[in-house]
């Protein structure tokens, strides 16, 4: 079966900085794929190349076998490629329901100028989307009254307004507590299962990645150094070297622990592959 998305030999440099270097991978229907790697590895640039914010120097991105290079993010949204909304894009004074209605309006190619005339716009559909992220009971609350985790769930509901086949989530859980991270990604995984959406996401918590991803792509310094299911990635010697500092004496160590993004001195993450990361040391257990 043809993959939903094919990324082929994608490269992008900023000046002399090779941000993405010959990266190839496929996303299949129903995939929940994590893209991981240290700070500056090229994850966001890869997202931007897929979602039309950047053009590659070389390579191809195919959706259902057809090139989507050069398509605007808006055109891509109409083709079923969605990315998560940012907090700033939600209208804080509007209700939760109204925000989803605005996302539906946008997905239908209609301008927000129609908004005043359309307060009932696709009300039932909006409520259905909210129910999918378990926010229906909060539909009438203004967004500014929501807890942070609920804002993130609202963003997820809004990104589903165009009924995407592929959802691109770059750091969807940024700023969330570990518990909220798990809850949001469990919800996303359930959407993958029930709606047949494919998800490509980045995430710094290895706990979350190894629990929720079907497959994992590992980037370092612009290149894809490994891909596979969580078990094979956990066993991959190069990945261990990058993430867990194994073989610091003699063997290769692509990045230092200090480069591992999203790990603050206050946070200690116990990973499912048996190691503990802190800001200043990475120690296999
Ligand atoms: P990640 O998301 O994995 O942290 P990025 O894709 O944001 O990594 O960045 C990869 C590299 O490209 C970094 O060295 C970064 O500084 C550089 N970079 C990213 N975006 C730009 C840009 N718009 N202009 C110049 N350099 C950039
Ligand atoms: Mg990034």
Write structural notes for this entry:
- The chain is of the alpha/beta class.
- The chain has a domain of 74 residues.
- The protein is built from 9 helices and 13 strands.
- The strands form 3 sheets. It has a 6-stranded mixed β-sheet, with helices on both faces. Strands 2-1-4-5 form a 4-stranded antiparallel β-sheet, with helices on one face. Strands 11-12-13 form a 3-stranded antiparallel β-sheet, with no helix packed on it.
- Helix 3 crosses helix 4.
- The protein is globular.
- The C terminus is likely disordered.
- The structure holds adenosine-5'-diphosphate and magnesium ion.
- Adenosine-5'-diphosphate (ADP) binds next to strand 2 and helix 1.
**Strand percentage:** 15-25%
Mean pLDDT: 83
Taking the alpha carbons of the first and last residues, their distance comes to 41 Å
- Adjacency order of strands in the biggest sheet: 6-7-8-3-9-10
Outline type = globular
Instruction: Characterize the quaternary organization of these chains.
Output: single chain
The main β sheet shows up as: 6 strands, mixed
Number of helices: 9
**pLDDT below 50 for ≥5 consecutive residues: which ranges?**
246-285
Number of strands: 13
Category by helix and strand content: alpha/beta
Give the helices and strands as they follow along the chain: EEEHEEHEHHHEHEHEEHHEEE
Bound molecule kinds, no repeats: adenosine-5'-diphosphate, magnesium ion
What's the Cα radius of gyration?
Answer: 19 Å
**Which percent range fits the helix content?**
25-40%
């Amino acid at each position: 079966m043809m993959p939903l998305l094919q990324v082929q030999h994608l490269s992008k440099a900023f000046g002399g900085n090779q941000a993405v270097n010959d990266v190839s991978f496929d996303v299949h229907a129903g995939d929940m794929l994590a893209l991981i790697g240290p700070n500056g590895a090229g994850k966001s640039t890869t997202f931007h190349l897929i979602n039309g914010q950047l053009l590659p120097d070389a390579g191809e991105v195919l959706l259902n076998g057809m090139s989507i290079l050069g398509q605007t993010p808006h055109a891509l949204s109409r083709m079923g490629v969605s990315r998560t909304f940012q907090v700033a894009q939600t209208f804080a004074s509007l209700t939760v329901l109204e925000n989803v209605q605005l996302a539906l309006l946008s997905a239908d190619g209609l301008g927000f100028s129609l908004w005043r005339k359309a307060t009932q716009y696709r009300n039932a559909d909006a409520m259905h989307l909210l129910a999918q992220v378990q926010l229906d009971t909060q539909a009438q609350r203004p967004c500014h009254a929501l807890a942070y985790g609920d804002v993130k769930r609202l963003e997820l509901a809004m990104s589903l307004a165009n009924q995407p086949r592929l959802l691109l989530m770059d750091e969807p859980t940024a700023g969330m507590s570990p518990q909220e991270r798990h809850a949001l990604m469990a919800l996303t995984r359930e959407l993958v299962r029930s709606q047949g959406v494919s998800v490509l996401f980045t995430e710094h918590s290895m706990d979350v990645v190894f629990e929720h991803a079907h497959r994992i792509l590992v980037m370092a310094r612009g290149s894809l150094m490994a891909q596979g299911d969580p078990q094979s990635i956990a066993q991959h010697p190069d990945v261990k070297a990058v993430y867990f500092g194994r073989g610091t004496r003699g063997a290769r160590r692509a990045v230092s622990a200090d480069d591992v993004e999203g790990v603050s001195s206050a946070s200690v993450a116990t990973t499912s592959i048996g190691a503990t990361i802190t800001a200043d040391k990475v120690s296999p257990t």
